[in-house]
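Sample entry (91 residues):
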Amino acid sequence: SAEDVMFVVEEQQPAVIIMDVVMPGMNGFQATRKINRNPGTADIPIIILSSKGKESDKVWGMRQGAAGYIVKPFIPDELVRKVREVLGPGA
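Predicted structure, serialized as tokens:
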């Protein structure tokens, strides 16, 4: 659930977050927005990985603060490439 994600993110401070949109309770768009508005977690890049593939979903995800948006089914190399991109040189 997104609530679990919020707890883990604050406790573990991951280098990157892979976020689904469809989850029980708070959805991934809401969680992305909340993570990006929290000064303690705002620097953690979020890649949304979702079956919601409409252009409006992608735009909305990016407006919530996602660093990338990949639609399922996905190509694993695409995800790896995006993670390296958001983490920067040396990743």
